[in-house]
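Incident review: delayed structure delivery

Summary: a single-chain prediction request sat in the queue longer than the usual turnaround. Root cause was a stuck worker, restarted by the on-call engineer. No data loss occurred. The affected request and its eventual output are reproduced below so the record is complete for anyone auditing the incident later.

Affected input:
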Amino acid sequence: MPETPAPKKSEPLHKEPEEDKEDVKKAAAQPKKTKNLDAETINKAVEITSEKISKKLLTQVPKTAAGFESDFNSLKKDLPTFYSYVRIIPAETVSQLFKH
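Output delivered after worker restart:
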């Protein structure tokens, strides 16, 4: 059987100019700039996040003591929300969480 020649590699249809490659290298070499956030923006973000966590926790009942502890640590600074959270936990579940 005669050998068939290997197919030739085709050249790309579009060649990027050398200048574009250099611009990409320069952009990759420069560090990314980060925003400086003021205290008000950070406090707003913390408040929004804690509200979302509180709403999520008020719809869940912990299944383990570790889950309760995690929820407690999230809510311990906001006592009214923590009390609401504790009220939704059935008494039977509480006894299962803290049995020895």
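Verification: The mean pLDDT is 77.
Action items: add queue-age alerting; document worker restart procedure.
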